[in-house]
Amino acid sequence: MIRTLTGLIIVLVLGAVAAAVIPEMQMREELQGVGYSYVSRGMDDTGSSNLVTAVIVAYRGLDTLGEVVVLFCASTAVVLILTLYPIGIKASEPSRVVAFTAKVLPAPILLFGVYFIAHSHISPGGGFPGGTVIASVFLLVMLGSSSVPDGRGRLPAIESLAGLSFGLLGFWGIMTVGQFLNNAFLGTGTPGTIVSGGLIPLISIAIGAKVASEFSGVFKAFRNTGGTV
Amino acid sequence: MSTAFYWSIAGTAAGLVLVGLWGILTRKHILRIALAFTLADTGVNLLLVWSGYLPGRTAPIVDGTISASGITSAVVDPLPQAMVLTSIVIGVAVAALFVVVGVLASRRTGSADVRRMKELRW
Amino acid sequence: MIFLSIAGHVLLVSGGFILFTSGLGILRMPDVWNRLHAGTKATTLGSILFLAGIGCLEPTWIPKLFLIVLFIILTNPVSGHALARAVHMRPEEKPDNLLEDDLAESGFEGGEEQ
Amino acid sequence: MTETLMTVIVVTFGGMMITAAIAVLFVRDLLSAIIITGFVSLSASVMFLLMDAPDVAITEASIGAVLATMIFLWGRGKIGGDG
Amino acid sequence: MSNTFTSILFGLLGGGLLLAFIRLLKGQHGTDRAVALDTATLISTNLLVFIAFLEGRSMLVDVALVYSVLSFLGVLAIARYLDGGLR
Amino acid sequence: MKRFPAVMSTAAVLLCIWIFLTLSFHPHELVLGFAVSLIIAVATKGAFTGNWFRLLKPARLAAEVNYVLYFLGKMFMANIDVLMRVLQPVVPVKPGIVRASLVMNSERARNIVANSITLTPGTLTIEMTGTEIFVHWISLPEGDIHEETQKMVDGFANRLKRIFE
Q: Hey, is the C-beta of E60 within 8 angstroms of any chain D C-beta?
């Protein structure tokens, strides 16, 4: 009772604060500040038609590197905890239709994932969504069987390789033009075609591989501890 | 009238955050708290994207429909979108950690009730 | 062109109506399996008609719309089947208005057959 | 898209999201709570598309629909009990 | 495309979505809610394509593509959970 | 290389999907798409399509068109059926689960039958074992239910046998 009351009071106070603060954010008519700068210069600087990808990979590339490290820490912690304290229940057999679908559908879904990663600079998508789509293929394979898929040892290798290549691509910029994660030194190409945007496609591939292998590792750890997945 | 939908998006987002916070504060089952955390996460993401939204404009991706010259008056702000994109992925990784720690804590105390998880108290 | 436009509008309205029917069926049907009937059949045909209508109005989008339709046809019956089987696996949630139940008589509980 | 129409869509989806969010906290069965959370994520994805953020919409759809649901289902299978 | 026509279509799709949503809230068991979620996501896929059509940008269709594929996976995961993970 | 035809047909279909996605015939796109689809086809061992080159013979093409038309007609009927039921004041249902035998060599064909049944009038596949299939009726048919169900299943199975066997 006291718990509900305290919660209600805190939430009401916060709601009042939100109701007071949010209308203060005037509706903007024009882009301002750093957003304006990114939009007006983004195409020329990076050669990427998708300005969101340009911000993630090029302008804020260092932040993204840090963010990938955070993701790595979280997934490593999950896998480590599950390996240290295994809890096991046996998984059940899937129906035949589901098992067959899990054999058939991975190919096109993988193709979608690769498409989103490879076209991150032209169309919506990018390393993060593409990586999660590929990880969900791993999930589909697991849903369609009662055993653990193999690939022991391959996932960590892919993960380390992807992280390493992200860093190395950054250092390539230092070597050539003295700037970490500079993406324009390769030439930006014609915006809107697949070979454009300098380093952006390569870094997207690295991010995608890293995200995919991390989430796949988490699911594999879930499966190894038994249960429903 | 012209900006009603603009403010209703903000209201939805703020409402989600508040509902999520209330759930975190008052629920007892640890997974229910994790679900409430996810809800609050979604609300915060909506609020962030909303802060970069300019009504009447289009997505910040250049193709045939918008010209490169008049782009600054045609697209929404890409910066909050980029931040939210990474925030979503981090959010689910944190939720996974939350659930795994919760499962282990409930194994140790024998119940999923957070009031009985004395080891997690400070 | 005028013909394509008219066809597109007709397809859109019929597709939208069938999708609406699926929602109605989900709400009105008496038990979970009958709800699944409305949920899988009506949404599949409704999506096909609706996306075909969009395709008539925007002919350059047809390839992508075709991919969406292909995926809906491939995936929708599978999820319906998986849910239907899951209901049978949970005795406490199984509807009790069946007039004939060969599956329960065959003693099949799932999981053991290879 | 006219503004009236946009308002109607946003209000519909927003209302559904908040109703569903409250339902997540109050529904008795934890499995139902997980399913309804999935619905909130998918609605959020539609909201992101309405706010002209297709990248975010794709990410939210892929993560909210599959990965988060899967993680919570795993936890539900391990813990049990509805509270 | 006239305004009235657009409103009618949105009414149909949104109405179906709302009905499925009511079932999602009301449903007696988890299975009923899973069925309602399946239907609601498919209707939303069509809604997404329609929004993309009204905005007139073909790239937004990609979102509907991902949405349809992955909502299927989510429902499949729930179904696999329901059909005997706990026994 | 027993799976070579399967891998190649999968790669061909995946390349088609790639072209549909990108809507571009730029050489770079084509080369990238070809490489990606080949890698995915090899990695998934060509499971997406199986060997489709065998299905392209003229005699089989006729059977395929026949099947698709039959299936589309049935699906349309299914929706009219569901619609009529839903719009009545009291929804008329007479549900039941009936067993029917389904003997086919190809796992692919069996799955197509199961999914087709799910999408056609008043029926929903609930379980499929090695030789049998269990069908849920929204409203049990008149007459002998087992005979009617068997007739419905065979309607699909016989048309598919002309394609796959």
A: yes
Domain locations along chain B: 2-54+69-116
Quote the pLDDT of residue A148. 58
Position F51 in a domain:
no
Matching residue, tokens 């995946």: F14
What pLDDT sits at residue A86? 66
Name the residue type at position A34: V
Q: Under a CB-based contact definition with an 8 Å cutoff, are residues A159 and A214 in contact? A: yes
Q: How far is B68 from chain A (nearest CA, A)?
A: 8
Once rounded to an integer, what is the mean pLDDT over residues F48-70? 78
> Which two three-digit tokens encode residue C3?
């013909």
User: Which residues of A make CB contacts under 8 Å with C?
Assistant: 92-93, 95, 97-98, 101, 104-105, 108
pTM score of the predicted model:
0.90
Position C106 scores a pLDDT of: 66
Q: State how far the Cα of D82 lies from the Cα of D28, in Å rounded to an integer.
A: 7
Q: Which of E70, E76, E80, E82 to mutate to test the interface with D (most CBs of D within 10 A)?
A: E70
Cβ contact (<8 Å) for E13 and C61? Answer: no
Chains B and E make contact, 3+ CB pairs within 8 Å? yes
Domain holding C27, by residue range, is: 2-91
Q: Spell out which residues of chain B touch residue A38, defining contact as CB-CB under 8 Å.
A: 78-79
Q: How far is CA A88 from CA A85, A190, A223, F4, F118, in A?
A: 10, 54, 9, 40, 35
Residue C107 — very low, low, confident or very high, per pLDDT cuts 50/70/90? low
Residue D77 touches chain B, beta carbons under 8 Å: no
**pLDDT one-digit tens code per residue, D4-59:** 888 888 898 999 999 999 999 888 888 889 999 999 998 999 999 888 888 999 99
Contact A137/D at CB under 8 A: no
- Does residue B65 belong to the interface with chain E, where contact is any CB pair within 8 Å? yes
Query: Is F103 part of a structural domain of the chain?
Result: yes
pLDDT of residue A150: 55
Pairwise CA distance, residues D2 & B56, whole Å: 10
Q: How many domains does chain F have?
A: 2
Q: Which residues of C46-79 are buried (b: 16+ CB within 10 A; e: fewer)?
A: bbbbbbbbbbbbbeebbbbbebbbebbbbbbbbb
Q: Which of the listed CATH numbers 1.10.287.3510, 2.50.20.10, 1.20.120.530, 3.30.565.10 matches domain B2-54+69-116?
A: 1.10.287.3510
Q: Are residues F91 and F130 in the same domain?
A: yes
- F83 and F24 in a single domain? The answer is no
Q: How far is E80 from chain D (nearest CA, A)?
A: 10
Distance from C-alpha of C71 to C-alpha of B16, rounded to nearest angstrom = 32
In a domain? residue C105:
no
Q: Are residues F106 and F134 in the same domain?
A: yes
- Asked if F85 contacts F93 with a C-beta cutoff of 8 angstroms, the reply is yes
Domain that holds residue F133: 59-164
Distance, CA of F145 to CA of F94 (rounded, Å): 12
Q: Does A112 touch chain E (CB under 8 A)?
A: yes
CB contact under 8 A, A49 and B62: yes
Residue C110 pLDDT level (bands cut at 50, 70, 90): very low
Best of A89, A95, A112, A137 to disrupt the C interface (most C CBs within 10 Å) is A95
Domain presence at residue C101: no
Does residue C102 form part of some domain? no
Which residues from E are below 8 Å from B59, CB to CB? 57, 59-60
Of the pLDDT bands very low, low, confident and very high (cuts 50, 70, 90), residue B115 is: confident
Count of domains in chain C? 1
Instruction: State pLDDT tens for residues A30-76.
Output: 787 888 888 888 777 777 888 888 888 888 888 888 888 888 888 88
Judgement on whether residues F128 and F80 belong to the same structural domain of the protein: yes
pLDDT in tens, F72-105: 888 888 888 888 888 887 777 778 888 888 877 7
Q: Is the dihedral of CA B5, B11, B12, B14 positive or negative?
A: positive
Q: Residue B2: which pLDDT band, with cuts at 50, 70 and 90?
A: low
Q: Which amino acid is at C11?
A: L
Reported confidence tier of residue A229, pLDDT bands at 50, 70, 90 = very low
